[in-house]
Amino acid sequence: RIMRPDDANVAGNVHGGTILKMIEEAGAIISTRHCNSQAGEPCVAALARVERTDFLSPVCIGEVANVSAEITYTSRHSVEVQVNVMSENILTGAKKVTNKATLWYVPLSLKNVNKVLEVPPIQYARKEQEDEGKKRYEEQKLDRLETKQRNGDVIFPIINPEPHTVGYSQSSLIHLVGPSDCTLLGFVHGGVTMKLMDEVAGIVAARHCKTNIVTASVDAINFHEKIKKGSVITISGRMTFTSNKSMEIEVFVDADPFVDEPRERYRAVSAFFTYVSLSKEGKPLPVPQLLTETEDEKRRFDEGKGRYLQTKAKRQAQEQQAARQ
Amino acid sequence: RIMRPDDANVAGNVHGGTILKMIEEAGAIISTRHCNSQAGEPCVAALARVERTDFLSPVCIGEVANVSAEITYTSRHSVEVQVNVMSENILTGAKKVTNKATLWYVPLSLKNVNKVLEVPPIQYARKEQEDEGKKRYEEQKLDRLETKQRNGDVIFPIINPEPHTVGYSQSSLIHLVGPSDCTLLGFVHGGVTMKLMDEVAGIVAARHCKTNIVTASVDAINFHEKIKKGSVITISGRMTFTSNKSMEIEVFVDADPFVDEPRERYRAVSAFFTYVSLSKEGKPLPVPQLLTETEDEKRRFDEGKGRYLQTKAKRQAQEQQAARQ
Amino acid sequence: RIMRPDDANVAGNVHGGTILKMIEEAGAIISTRHCNSQAGEPCVAALARVERTDFLSPVCIGEVANVSAEITYTSRHSVEVQVNVMSENILTGAKKVTNKATLWYVPLSLKNVNKVLEVPPIQYARKEQEDEGKKRYEEQKLDRLETKQRNGDVIFPIINPEPHTVGYSQSSLIHLVGPSDCTLLGFVHGGVTMKLMDEVAGIVAARHCKTNIVTASVDAINFHEKIKKGSVITISGRMTFTSNKSMEIEVFVDADPFVDEPRERYRAVSAFFTYVSLSKEGKPLPVPQLLTETEDEKRRFDEGKGRYLQTKAKRQAQEQQAARQ
């Protein structure tokens, strides 16, 4: 679809969150279609996880985003979908790859939302495809268990914080979940949640460096708990790490299903977003270093540095491999 | 994309206007891309006309609408686009044709919005395709001239009207044109206008028969004048004709570009919408007859009857032809 | 949240209605949460009244609006909420107070929408806080009774009106109430109604003075009657008074619940909005005087003048008191 002014920031770059929402919608359509392709209980595919994804080039207002999706692996209870986004300038005809994302969905019964149904298996062109898919499946399963334990943290407000500290840029946004945010099952679309997370992360990044900022990448996101229509969700973001030209922001989503079934507030999702700062000409700018004060902040900074170095090493390895081929 | 609660009326049927907006967006993308496919002045394709279109079957919340578009004819300064909409129930896999629409676009220069550029010619598989396209082009050109003259009418308000009279159901809506309603040139997307027109027509129809109503068809719509960002547009609708099971509503769009360049209010678009009334089970219901009071109302009723009988005759001829083949 | 292009008028100033909608959403969340904080029947807090509120400074596209809410008083069946809005320019770090609003909510049972539940009492830090709250409670109760009687007026259309008369700028808007406009109970959010009222009032003001206009204040608004999903609402506005640099516009909301339960059209809300006209540099401009023609228009002008002088006197008294302290 054509990118509109409301999809973009003041510099005209489309929000990463808008792209993430489109990706998730495409993934939900193709996996729901697949899971209902054989006679049996009707179901809706719910997003369980998005793998780490890089934003390779910014999209601008007036460009057309083309989204294509393909199922690449099925386990007994889950579907792996690969989604590609190309942006096209229909005036010049120029096309660029914007995004490649991998998403995992789980089919939930339309009659009993707590029942996970079986997924019809797909046919693989080659045996290796199945083996590689299985390996990815095992890896993500492990990672989901790990993050489930990490999820207990809370963001405390800080009064009169100094510039460039963690407390200075941290931000929260509250959203009341309406009908258009939800699937047929009455739970929030994963894409809606990711769009709000990107909005908060963007505010944190802009507060820190006071320039035009764009989403560079999103770490793997796990959706542990569903969020029901009528809930109030609080999305909080804080900066965890800065390199010379990038910022890492941790975002938490907490849900409060306060009307229907007064249950305790719970952590629904958490993730790391990476942002870069751009000049008016679209060139990357240096980022002010994050000032860490408490022990926890220092620890999180070091952990963020670890993730940063790991990603960098992985990318270099890929580039070398590509050069060799 | 997936149809959401906000796209539909209370009975869960998606508004014809939502479908028209999607059709126009697809048409604008493909024709803008085509008109920029050769080196030259960059341009944006502006909607000039939509041919009469029937809504063959209603779309429901949760279904996916698949839109495909194809360029079927080019004249020197205009592009004909054929857009097909299929609705797909991703739970059952059932697909239905919802809509087939033909739209005409004109390329306007991005630098000088009043300059119409030349359209790169397309290649036809067979000579007859070009000839048939040319015939359609000549026909629509004639029709556009005719409606341009009809456009002078105004809807006068009536105080304390009786049920089932024209004055009882007539309705107006004002809308302030925002950035997201507009193309890169700063003029309202044709699809946005059509969505608002369908909204007003639907309110007129619902006020008349007080039941659940759906769009059955839209007559050809000509876009004579552009509408600028920041304008206030008034969309007015009045019922012109009722058959046993359908209602015809005339809709006018008037624009008021009052902020930037205080110009007189002008008529931008007008069209006829046909609605049917549906029971809870989705069966067509009888429609209360429209009570006409003035000479003008009687004349418009007769003209509406003429259009109704003509369409009916055309459809029967097509069905007989289809049966013979 | 970040203010987007669609939240603002052509000059980049965010609509007062967008702010009012955010304020109401925050109020609804905090009061619904409070009313469900003790075991008992689940309920949703419905807006009963908004006290007069001033827009202290305009908000621009790209700024972040921070909304905070606090419960300041509870009676047996109602909750008083104080909401503060700060706008923050995240590039410069500059913050301004935009708005301070006081809202009254009433808890309605989720099972039986006509049943008003009891409100859990709050604890006051000092006895005086409770006494002042009680005084505010009694005052607003009285005022609500008064406006209930005023509500019978209707706006009649005028044909070919002269510039600067009441008939020239009066405007109506119809809106079909969709799912996203409604609470879990299926009734329109008070904030949605206020946003539409501000939209009509803004169009009236812009038609009168043909410049860029912004909301300066809103008088107390009482919500006497609920509006159900699927209703058509007509929002009408007419200018009642002009001072040298401000315009007062009276806005009515009428509801037509015509589909489910064909009931007579009824007046749901009414209120006074005050607007000012701004130059391109953001300075207040003189406003053309309103030309009153009928006796009713002259009477309403005088009443508007009374409200204007009263507000002016109150503000001056406050400023003197502030200067003395």
TrEMBL record, chains A, B, C:
HotDog ACOT-type domain: which residues? 1-111, 167-281
One Gene Ontology cellular component:
cytosol
Give a yes or no for keyword Lipid metabolism in this entry. yes
Where is composition skewed (Basic and acidic residues) in this entry? Answer: 296-306
**Protein's recorded name:** palmitoyl-CoA hydrolase
Q: Which Pfam families match?
A: 4HBT
User: Does the record carry GTP-binding as a key word?
Assistant: no
- The EC number of this protein is 3.1.2.2
Annotated source species: Nyctibius bracteatus (Rufous potoo)
UniProt keyword annotations, A-Z: Cytoplasm, Hydrolase, Lipid metabolism, Repeat, Serine esterase
Please, one GO biological process term? acyl-CoA metabolic process
Q: Where is the active site?
A: N9, D198
Subcellular location field: Cytoplasm
Gene Ontology MF: a single term: carboxylic ester hydrolase activity
Instruction: List the SUPFAM superfamilies hit by this protein, alphabetically.
Output: Thioesterase/thiol ester dehydrase-isomerase
Q: Which InterPro entries match?
A: Cytosol_ACT, HOTDOG_ACOT, HotDog_dom_sf, Thioestr_dom
Q: Where is this region: Disordered?
A: 283-325
